[in-house]
Design brief:
The chain is built from 20 helices and three strands. The protein is mostly helical. The protein is globular. The C terminus is likely disordered.
Length: 483
């Protein structure tokens, strides 16, 4: 075909020939446009998906959690203090509240403002929670509630291109400065263990309102060390823009003996090649054993000190075993010896418990003296002076006015000590109690003490048929018994 013949073809004919060639090219690819269905409806697509004709990797949309009416009402009313108190009083339901809070805050006219209003009670306490959980009520519950609100607000505001009004940021900066001033990490026991709630709260506040540029990175890193054990900290560090400083943070954690926290940060920021897990775990276990020995020595190897030391070492061993499994380190750090040590410590702990229980049972079975023991004569009356009962001296059991003496002969009188009543000591669980002299009271008209009366000190040779006559007087004894 020469050039002149091609050029002489009408434009329409040339377009039809091009379309025909294109149609043939598509057919050669195995697709016939004429046979492609054009009647595509949502129902058709759903049917094809269910039959497996269409593959899709699109995940279903996540349903938004609905907030409970109380939360929605508090947010709609912009009641920040009420919202904080509601969270503090429902601490046991914190997991569900954490999921519902973002949806509830969206119901507020100004989510950032209501959260700032709630933060004003961070250092206050609420002695009357709306529900149980009284143990958690107070300052700690308020602070945890504030952290919960800050986390929810961060989700509502989003992580990209976060723009807040200048007055909101200024107020947030004032609050953060106030918290920082009151935060004394040097005296905070939780800060020493890397579990400071105040440090966590401050860092979350700075991250949520985008205030990281207001503070030095080195200053923020020191505060991170004080709350490194809290699982939210790696994410907070990302929000604060401290990713480049994390190697320094890990070095400081290792220096402070927080090897497990260092391992967590190294894993979160993909730094395990630089900070290898096995040396960190071995170092952690070594330090834990030293701490257990110090506890044992400080408690003079007492039973309580042994239990404390055992618990410390057991906890450390279980943490190491957990990380060996989590990071797949069995080939590098075999766990068999660690498991044997765990079994050994648990066995020793169980034996101590059994021994203690057996000792308590034995103590409970010992005979216990009565509260009042039999009378024991004190030294005030020598044994040689105590009257002795002689069967030959037995007398008739009855006697009185008009009663014969039954032919009994004269009876020697009992020799009584020249003093009053016997001094007696009662011995029992309540201790020794000496009875006072006037324990045996004289009767009216009898003169001195009964045992010390002249009638009994020097009795007559014969009782005369037990007619208590001159010595005691008829009105003293015979009157009541002869009615």
């Amino acid at each position: 075909m020469d050039i002149d013949s091609v050029a002489s073809k009408p434009p329409g004919e040339e377009k039809e020939e091009g379309a025909k060639n294109e149609s043939e090219r598509i057919d050669e690819a195995g697709i016939n446009p004429a046979k492609v269905e054009t009647d595509i409806t949502p129902a058709k697509i759903e049917t094809d998906i269910s039959l497996g004709k269409v593959e899709t990797d699109v995940a279903p949309a996540k349903a938004e959690v609905q907030a409970r009416p109380q939360l929605k009402s508090l947010c709609e009313d912009m009641d920040g203090p009420g919202l904080r108190k509601f969270l503090s009083g429902n601490k046991k339901d914190s997991s569900a509240l954490r999921a519902e809070l973002p949806a509830a805050l969206k119901c507020a006219i100004d989510p950032a403002r209501i959260v700032l209003n709630a933060l004003e009670g961070y250092h206050s306490s609420d002695p009357t929670p709306t529900q149980g959980d009284k143990k958690e009520a107070g300052t700690i519950a308020n602070r945890r509630s504030c952290v919960l609100l800050l986390e929810a607000l961060e989700e509502v505001l989003g992580s990209d291109n976060r723009v807040l009004p200048s007055n909101i940021k200024e107020t947030a900066k004032q609050v953060s400065d106030q918290w920082k001033t009151k935060m004394n990490l040097s005296t905070d026991a939780d800060a020493a263990s890397g579990f400071s709630l105040d440090a966590h709260s401050f860092l979350q506040l700075v991250a949520t309102f985008g205030l990281a540029s207001e503070y030095e990175d080195s200053e923020l890193c020191k505060i991170v060390i004080s709350a490194a054990r809290r699982k939210q900290l790696p994410g907070i560090c990302r929000s604060l823009g401290l990713a480049a400083k994390i190697p320094d943070v890990i070095e400081m954690l290792i220096k402070d003996g927080k090897q497990i926290e260092a391992l967590s940060f190294a894993s979160e920021f993909s730094l395990l090649d630089r900070f290898q897990p096995v040396p960190l775990l071995k170092s952690y276990l070594k330090e834990s054993r030293k701490s257990a020995q110090a506890t044992l020595k400080g408690g003079n190897n007492s039973s309580a000190a042994q239990n404390d030391a055992t618990n410390k070492e057991l906890a450390a061993l279980k943490v190491v075993l957990k990380h060996i499994d989590e990071y797949k380190l069995e080939t590098q750090y075999p766990s068999i010896n660690l498991q044997k040590r765990v079994a050994q410590l648990e066995k020793a702990k169980l034996e101590r418990k059994r021994t203690s229980s057996a000792a308590k049972v034995s103590q409970a079975k010992k005979p216990r003296a009565n509260d009042i023991a039999p009378v024991a004569f004190s030294g005030s009356v020598p044994s040689s002076d105590r009257p002795a009962y002689r069967p030959s001296d037995a007398v008739a059991p009855f006697g009185g006015v008009g009663v014969p003496s039954y032919g009994l002969g004269s009876q020697p009188g009992y020799d009584r000590p020249p003093h009053g009543g016997f001094g007696a000591t009662f011995v029992g669980n309540i201790g020794s109690v000496s009875l006072p002299r006037p324990y045996i009271h004289p009767a009216d008209g009898l003169g001195s003490s009964l045992y010390g009366s002249s009638a009994y000190t020097n009795p007559s040779p014969s009782y005369g048929g037990y007619q208590f006559g001159a010595a005691l007087g008829r009105s003293a004894y015979q009157g009541p018994y002869l009615r």
